[in-house]
Structures are given as structure tokens and as C-alpha cells.
Task: structure prediction
Amino acid sequence: MTTPTAHPAPQANSGPLDIAAIRGQFPILDIEINGKPLIYLDSAATSQKPQAVIDSLVEYYSSFNANVHRGVHTLSQQATDIYEDTRVKAQAFINARDAREIIYVRGTTEAINLVASSYGRANVGDGDDVIITAMEHHSNIVPWQILCDERGANLKVIPMNDDGDLLMDEFEKLLGPRTKFVSVVHQANSIGTVNPVKQIVEMAHAHGAVVLVDGAQSAPHIPVDVQDLDCDFYAFSGHKLYGPTGIGVLYGKYDLLNAMPPYQSGGEMIASVTFEKTIYADLPAKFEAGTPHIAGVAGLGAAIDWVQGVGIERIAEHEHRLVEYGLQRLNEIDGVKIIGNPKRRAGLISFIVDGVHPHDVGTVLDSQGIAIRAGHHCAQPVMAHFGIPATVRASFGVYNTTDEIDRLYEGVQQVFEVFG
Amino acid sequence: MPDRSDLSDLYQEIIMDHRRSPRNQGLPAGHDHYADGFNPFCGDKVSVGLKVEDGVIVDVGFEGEGCAISIASASLMTESVMGRPVGEAVKIFDAFRGLLTDTGNGAGSDDLGDLEALAGVKAYPTRIKCAILSWHTLKAAIDRKAEPVSTE
Result:
């Protein structure tokens, strides 16, 4: 019997990272764009994938493909093992207490929708308050708007200052007996602020509110311990964590998840069905209706193994150096303005170039093989706060180098040559 | 995939000139047609106002901020439809749209004059919306649409 390949740690899990060796594991980094080596600075949109993750998808479909939790046959059992082993990996990755607190979803967006729809509808009523922050991605705004509209609840927003830091005093003022839910981004995708989520959770809990942390950007960049944060829900996406698209995780405290009504219904999420009554399955199956993205789960497992092998602390340290160096280089350029100056920043730098629209900056950089994101980053309220329509965003992954930041610096100089 | 290392086809001199000094910026006094346009992809907004007398566009102007392509396209648009009968302006819009989406050699297309400088946008599918936004907004203004138009 074949078993899934254990993906070995890419290198010794201590000391500085060998970035050349890491880059060698990402086949896409060898391609050329417009005749130039690809400089991929868009990992906040989606990360590139190491060979181990790519192989895990091929291996799954080549050797283990079957439906999970259904068959008595060997292949189904193997697929189920991969599926459930990954759950344990995800549990360990964020230090959840129990693997049943890990729910597979399509991504962070679906996780937030699940909580807003299931927990929200059951617990948020007329006149209650839901609090988010001024730096949310649209995916952590719209589900709560819909909930509040439906329930007659109020959506309140923790403001931020021009550095891109939340005004915690204002948050304290927003909290009250009607605060039912607080949903906050851990690391802002538009400006890179890392929010003090542990403090936010503590303050919200003091008022009896339940807290969701949107970890789409933080999971790949910051060591996360959900027990230490004491958050009630935490959501992240596989594809930003070097894994496949279409798979993500919702963590929720067992008692909360257990009390929540199902989000979607159908097969897999039931214990028994008659035409009169359905008994729902226990966690986590209750929230996993239908045939799941099993290959995606296999890929997520490989991605978590890979990240754990490298070491999330070392990834964070490397990216911190990249951010510091990027800030230093970009600040050297007259006519470049960095957006936000948060106390703690991770993974990315947003900036604008005097007199040149971010789209044009993006096109000039693309002509040099440099992939950045130009736009509002699905955070239009953040753009409105800074009075700009869009920014250029350079975001980093473990495979980026300071040489690439030098190329970005040169690329921005080229923008001035074209638009001077 | 076209090679996009050479930007000179995209940012032609005529486009850079209109970006630097947009023509007919600002809504014309006493305009009787008006529409707002919005590109949800990038958040850019543009407004177009027209003054129409006896079926002829006697004045046209735009307001808004955007990338080089969107500003140049709006500016070139106002020049191309100024003084034209409304029906002719709509025909130019159709021909211009054809220019941006046509994958052929362009043979037999109408002579679009300076607008042809925007043909390079064809190689940049994500930028076509930048070039077409002001035109959709013009069309909406002609139709006196009350709702903001979108490129989506």
C-alpha cells in the first residue's frame, strides 16, 4: 500500500534562511515576464507554490483520489486519512485545542460568511452592535452589513489615524452592552498594519462580545496561537499560505461552533435524515456539507508542512528585513509616498508615485517583469481615508530578496522616465 | 502573450500629451446631458456633461481622475465628438470600441484620427476598461441615464 509522501523539511529549522535554496523550490520563479526574470511582489494577493505543494496535488489525484467519509474501500480510507491528517496539521499550526475546531472552507471570505450567517443570525438582533475596523477588506465588511441590515443591528467602525493604527480609545467607547460581535483584521491587506488583536479580544470579551480575527494576511507572515489570542474565531486561506486556491480554514471555539446552526446543508453534515427530521452531524462535519475540496486539503496539508519545515518565525524575520529594506529604498525616491506608518507592519508596503496613477506604475513595472498590485485592494474605505483612489502595493513572501527590492527601486525610477 | 517590455505602443506621444494637458476638462456651462461613470476594478470615476442643440453636441467636457489611459481617452473623446451630431458620436463610440477589441488588422475600420493612438491598449486587456470608461459615460449622458454607469 502506498502512503502519502511525507514532505521533508526543506532545511534545518534554525539559523538564517537559505533563500536561494527556497527559491529553487518554486518553479514559477524561473519564468520570464516580458523578457525579464519575474519579480513577484504580489504575495498578499496570492502566494506562489513550492514544488512540494504542486506534487501533493498530482500525488493525490494519481494515487489517492476517492470521496471521503463514505466508502468502505481502501482508497476512500486513504483519502479520508489525508483529509483528517491535514485537519490535525491545521490545528497544530494555529495551536487550536481540538481538531474538531478546524472547519474546512473555500477561504477566508467563506469563513466570515459562515460566521456572519450562522452565529450572526442566531445571536445578533434588533438594536445590537457589530464592530469592525476602518481597515477591513470588503470581505470583512459586506457580510456584516448584510447581517446588520437583516437584523436591524448597527455596524460600527473603529477609526484609524493617518499612520494606519487603530484608535483604541475610540474602540473602548464603541463597546457596550449591545456589542454582540467584533470582527477585526489581524494584518491589513491594504497598508500592512498588524493590529493588537490580543488586546482587542480582551476588551471585547470584557463586554461579553464574541470576536473573529481575519487571518488571511497574518497566517502566512506571523506566528499565530489562537489560544493565546483567545479569539473566538480565526479564519485563513490556503492560497496565501503557499497552498492551493479554494481551500481555507475557519477555527472556532468548540462550544460556540457546537451551538451554531448549520451554514449549508446536504450530505456529509447529517447524522440521520428522515422526511420528518434531520439530526445534524457533530463537529466538524456539521459545517462541511457536500463533497469537499479534498485535493485542496491535501495541498493545504503539504503547504502547512512546508511552512512548518521552514519555520514561520524565520519567515517572519526574513520578511521583516524585506519590509525594512523596502521602506528604506522607496523612501530614498523623491515623489514616492508610503501610505501608512503603522507601529507594527508586516508583509507589504503600499505607496503612491507623485502625478502617476497606480495603474500606470503597475504597467511600467510589469514591462520590467515586476508583478505588484495596483488598485484599491478591495479596501475602498481605506483608500477613502487617505483620500486616494488606489495605491501600488508591493507584498512579500519567503522567496523574495533584497535584490528584488533593488529592482523595484529601479522600476520606479523607470516610471519617472516614462512619465517625467 | 504579447511582449509588453516596450511601452511605446501603449504610451504614445499623443496619449502622453493629452494626459499632461487634458482638453475640455470640466463640465460645460449649461450642460443639458450628464452622467457619472465608475470603474469598480480600479475605483476610478469620471463625469461627462454635454450641451446638445438641434441634435448636435455643441459642447462637451469631463471631470475625474484616473490613469494616463483613462484621462487621455476622455480628452481625445471630447475632441472627437465636439460639434458632431449625436448619432455620429455614437458611431464613433462603436468604432472606437471595435478598435480596442478588434483582434484583426483593422482593415476597413473607420478613420478614427487621433483616437487610433489608443489602439495599443488592445495588448493590455486589463487596461481596456480604463480607455472605455469615459465613452460608456458619454453614451449614458447621451441617453440621459440617471444611474451611474459601470464598466462591469
Observations:
- The two ends of chain A are 65 Å apart (CA to CA).
